[in-house]
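User: Hi! I'm working on a homework problem where we have to compare a predicted structure to a textbook description. Could you give me the structure for the chain below?
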Amino acid sequence: MVGSVIIIAIVLVVFLIMRNLKDKKNYEKYLKKNDKSIPIKDEIDSDEL
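Assistant: Happy to help. Predicted structure tokens:
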């Protein structure tokens, strides 16, 4: 009985880790696709540095 609970817990943890990695990859693809970079020169004056 205890062994089956441990096995189910391990499977759940592995499933959640794999799902998180997949979501992270999808989010990174989304950010790369929708990135609207602004050059640093336009944001900050060189006098402020």
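For your comparison, note the following. Residues 13 and 27 are 21 Å apart (CA to CA). The chain has a mean pLDDT of 84. Good luck with the assignment!
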